[in-house]
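User: quick one, fold this
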Amino acid sequence: MTFGGVVHYVTQPTGWPEPVRGITSLLSPFHCPDSSSNVSEHLSNSYTAKDFQVLIQSTAAGLSALAELPHYGGERSTVPLWSQLLHALSNTLSSDVMILEDASFIMPRAQNVASQPLNLIDGRATLLAAHAIFSAPRTHSNTSRTSSRNEEDEDESMHSADSDSSDGSIESLDLPLQAHMLSGRGRRLSAVVPVLLVADSHNIVPLLCSTLYQRRVWGIRQPVVGLCCSSTGTIATAIFGWLDPDQSEKGHMPAAHLALAADIGLDSSMGVFDFTDTCSAINLAQFILGLRTQFEDIKGSISIEAVDSLTPLHWRSDLPDFETQSGGLLDERVASWTHQVHVETSSSEASSSSSPPTPPLLSDTALVSYETMSSPLLATIVEDEQVHGANIRAPQEARAINVKGRGPQPSSSKRSSKRTSPTPRSLSEVKTSTSSRAPSPYPNSQFAALSDTGLGDSMTLSNWLFERNAFTVGRIPVQSEELAKKTGINTMVELYDKMTEFSWSDDIRTILSNAKVDRVVSGIRTDLCTMNGGPNCQSTPNDVPSLEDVEFISSKFSVLLHAVTSARQCDDIAKLQGASEADRRHEWDALLLNFFQPVPSKRDVLLERQLNLACNLAVDDASFASRANKATREYQNLCLEQEQCSPLTRETSGSWEQAAAARDQANQSSDDIKRRLSMGKFAEVIADHSSKEPVTGKCDAILVIPCSGVATAMLQRISSIEEKDKFLKFFMLVQGPKPDKLDTSMGETPHQIETPVGHRRNTISGTSLQVPSSSRVPESGKPDRKQLHNPFLHHPDRNQVTQTQEAILSKDAPCDEPSQQNLLLPVLLAEYKKKDESAISTSMNQMKTYLVSAVTFLSKLGIVDKPVFGLIVNGTLGAVTMAWMTNKQIYVMERNIRHYDIRDPLQALQYVSILPRLARHGLDLRGLLEKQLAIIDVKELQSKLWSKLAQRQEDKRLAAAQQTRSEEAVAQDRGSDGAEPERI
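Assistant:
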């Protein structure tokens, strides 16, 4: 696809083209945005870079520290750190600025519609600072937010994002699709006009062009300002764009002009900034802060009447101008597209965790392959590191699979096994015959979304846990000494409380009051320090957190407060624009990176890494069927004991309801196992489960303790290089990122701006880059599983739910690249989901697979009776869970656990106070491992690998051997048949 346009490369600060000379004057380090009296009056409450100096210095230090850490098989994402700074700066552009992160936008169409491929539709913007227009008054929150409302627009036919609220009704915005640039169809409640655009080198060119064309539709003449920021680098390059004054000819879009620095050196005066250099970052901050006037000018230029009066511009890649571009063959093209959509939607049953790309109204009969589309990187944009496929975000990955229809697609026919033999067979026999069919495994994200109906025949999370000797429990100590000793539950509840409890004190108030914070967030600090603890603080006999930890937190307190601000704003934006999977992940990631504080060889935070999942133990255990009844009875006793030990009062009724629901679930589980055993096909069902279980899962974040010395010592006991690689791949929990498979529909194919100097016409090319009253089961006949799969339902430390509770309503595939030669001990695993009640159980299920796998991995290293923690995120809420192994049984704590809302500074403080304690817990794990090193039998680990990937590999080997034996038998039979006539 070709975006036709003109590129201007600038070699000196005075060489910027005339259309952008005014806006580029903001690049001067001597520029003062409030130097004129009239502007000064308008911006009386504006900020300068000095007001963000603490965050700037923290960002620079964090990115520099990140660069010193090993990659463990893939480039590290730097976005969570520098995006927090850009978010904070952009928030000052206007009282009603709307900031969108990881936003999907419509790419511009090709000049030649016949060359428009079906998959060239959406791109991905890292951050957009925009003005939003609404068609009618609406209600809003009075809390601090990006979009505060205090004015009314003069045009009564539309309302800006700062309009006063009315009765809460929302009408659709009556505008043509060409006036919108964000992806989506159907009823439009708002239009978004970006002012500052941030994207990587693969998306920045089409993002700039789409914004320019959208502005032409709105009659906005101001130039576009963009920042190209690598998702794994620290360099930001400013790019300025404008359109030719007039449309050149009918049916053709006006040429887009882009101007940027030609020199590859770092020079703030030329718009090339380095986040790790404090002076350069200050200049970048001052440049962004100076865009406030630009924002107000664009806001004042917006008019729906202008959209209606201007000549239509058909710029969207999903809405080509059929009549002009296709020679009047509108009916044929639409019929072709309709047929193509019907075929594609009928052939795919799989669902994705993120929204599908906007469907185009034009389809070529032969889809253009992503892999065959070539276009090199933006040649002159300074990037210290190239972007690799390893850094493709999860939503992008899922979207690519939706578009291309790749990957395993479990169907109803696959989920039902053909089991005709009434006679029970051994697990080994069943496993061999099942593996010969080699069905495709579920991706972990799809598997976690399946309905959990208990321990019946179908694939469920309960069966997955049961077949790995794992059960879920509540954070409730028991009175039975026998049960406490057998399960370790009381010890683990005590350990969990020590890890998560928090007690407010005057000492904490004093330390935080004296902490150095940016002026923009000082008000939040004041609100926090004037509180007297509040209902969210537990009364504990211990002084937690320690003053040493509080001092550490105070050194980064400004970062925490900025995260609080961003979380509040993202929540408000989600109410207006809807939420995406990545809406708040940057805030959570930034908190992990800053307060777990990665240090080389000591502790680390890895983002979006593949994990080996635990193998199915039951399928290889001939005695599992005989022990199944006993296991479910013991679980019944544990759940009944926890329910009886949970007091029923007005304050604790929520926790008791969860305990009662767990008791009912345990009763049903026991009945399910008895029923399956009586039908004589226990082995077949387990083998069917094993053949379709997920192999790996992608964890959003994982806190680890590196043990390079241990890994080296273990590998030295393996002579073969091939065996070493196999050991790393099949044994290690944390794997490297997936191999580079560019997701072109999401903007992962770069765009080229060719000539390095001068003003000449070039081609901007690109390609498109997804409450029961008894122990009986309730009247419905089923346990209340909603009580069990939502960790945010009740909070153990409060009489009522969190203040925001009532508002809460990717394909994973085996990884081909193992992590480098480092053994990484898991401390905490995180799974993020957008604010959506329906997604809570999915994220909880994914977390259970991660925790069980992590605990299994530690047990193979001789570490048992020690927990691994988990963080389940639903929007701004994060719940901390844990799992452990005792007496070869795994327990996952999922009920009556603590959760935190990071929009509340006190709860955010409580949450980050856990992270230093987790770091010390991780060091304790490493100490245990070092003691175990001498007695670890590496050969035994090689022969009994714990991962599902190793089990799957063994299944394939068995299937191949079975196939060979069958072929040999057939050949032998044919030979015997042929020889028989000669003997007669």
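User: anything notable?
Assistant: Residues 39 and 293 are 8 Å apart (CA to CA).
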